[in-house]
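Reopening: Glycoside hydrolase family 97 protein still failing for me.
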Amino acid sequence: MEREVNSKPNRRTVLGATVGAALVGAVATAPAAAAAGAGAASRGVTIRAPRGPLRVTVHLVDGRLRYEVTRRGETLVASSGLGLDLAERPSLTEGLEIESVERATVDETWRPVWGPDATVRNHASECVVRTVQPATGTRLDVVFRVFEDGVGFRYRLPAQEGLDRYTVTAERTEFALPADATSWSLAAGTDWNADERHYRRAPLGEVATAQTPLTLATARGTHVVVHEAALVDYPSMTLAATGDDRPGALASELISLPDGNKAHLEGAFSTPWRTLTIGDRAGDLAESHLIENLNEPCALDDTSWITAGTYVGVWWELQRRDTTWTEGPRHGATTARVKEYIDLAREAGASHVLAEGWNTNAGGEWTGQDFLTPRDDFDLPEVLRYAEANGVRFVAHNETRGFVDYYEEHLDTIFGRYAELGIDAIKTGYATRFELGGVNRSHYDQEAVRHYQRVIDAAARHRIMINAHEAIKPTGLARTHPHMMTGEGVAGMEQHNYMGKDGNPPEQATILPFTRFMGGPADYTPGVLNVTWDPAGLGTRVQTTSAAQLALYTVFFSPLQMLADTPENYRAHPGFAYLTDMPASWDETRFLDCEIGDHTVAARRKGDLWYLGAITDEHDRTLRVPLRFLGRGRYAAEIYQDAAETTWRENPLPIDIRTETVRASTTLRLRLVAGGGTAIRFRPL
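Support: Ran it again with your exact input. Result attached.
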């Protein structure tokens, strides 16, 4: 359960009206004598980070709120408009007046149930700018929080007469970013696999549309990520070039409902936060907790049932077409085969075993599934008995194939039965369509977002952890709902099958920590050590070396992290020793030497053990890595790296394993072959 540690009282300075409930947990308010008049506020409101040079300035220009973001004299967001459009009302981008400004300080330290760090500092300056449109009486607040590592802001429509039910037709948030910045992004899309593509590198001024997160590096080397936090009851935000004379200027573009509107709302409402994560280094982005901090604290009274861990299962052999989802002579999820994976889980210290294709009518057209009836060759009670006897739990695969109405109607029945059986984890899927409310819609519109939340709520009632595939991108909601463990939304391991002979190019792994992973964990499913295994003659393979697959366990984070290869492939490869007892939640994380698209070096600590992963793109490179993160004394560094004869394309399997004695004063010289990597476990001596 999330707990406050050494929590300081939140301090609030009030300018204008009485303090509202914008800051959860506020315990003190400053006297109203600190108020400034609306006239002063209209000349500009400045919000500075509690410490550091980051600053946001808010102005009212010709009746529209505008904001700027600067840092050390560098303009990161030039003057950019704010506002919403509501149906049958004048746009809230015009005719506004600032009524009051309220200030506060957020300062707390909290403990995640799981995460890359054991404790998280949440420290920000908050400012609520309250506006009114005199012509209509409509009130709109904009809440800003400025952290040392970025900015979050959201719209809040307070309860008010005449706004009981209303419709958002557009959001008018602008981000006038530096046009000459280098960017990494995915093109915006509404398809089920819009987030499962390869990141493109381009000058920001050439980007027409983008999914978020969108990442950029300015000419001065400042790194920025545009994303959103706390996406609840609202459509996903994409970005589109404004089309005016400001290259690099992007505007929010919300995913539409089938009726063309963006959101149907009732009463007081706060939108998701629009976020800018900012750092000097690429590594600063990956180490940031800004997205989580903009979410509400844990909503669960008891989190003892939520446990991070690795898992194995019938999956990669299906992807490689060695076995099938459907029943028949090559069916994968048989009782005997899943028992073999349970044995593997016991050997690896994995907590769970997954079986895809275990339930009736999984595979083929995926129609008529009930998610409760096993196949004839899959004895669920026996599998659960054998798993429990070996200290392993079962992950039930729920691939809806987009028949969402049926799934929603039976959620509590399905989850209730799982709870009775002792099944505490599911892997959901929404491949291809998304039929909800009798309509085939986008996976990312408001009603889809509401569905994902209903699954989260139902799972909490039955104490079930979720691994969601083809679902909405993460926006830090795991802080509030920590049983929402991980998800897809990434061109993961399976895309080595489906993106042609080139699969995922090596550079993608060096981009993901600073793009997709900014929102939260990803179920990338690493750990395929036999990267050339092609039992069905598909003509495709994993585009890394075996050593690089080991390094991904430190570079990528997921509290349910798969050991994706088969029992036979693991037992035949010496690198499997590195994966045994692999942590899935950490006490401390450092991103060391990172250049987006080139190479990434990350280190994570669990107890007194440190793990380090280093990966590179399609170029050979040698990196010098100081070990200053280690504690005092000597460490045994168990090093798994590409062998002298290893090459990414022709000979990717050989691995060299050795142990060296090192200290914090040691600098390691890591030779990385193209598409390769190095994985190291440090044990104190």
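Residues 3-37 have pLDDT under 50 and may be disordered. If you still see a failure, please send the error message rather than a screenshot.
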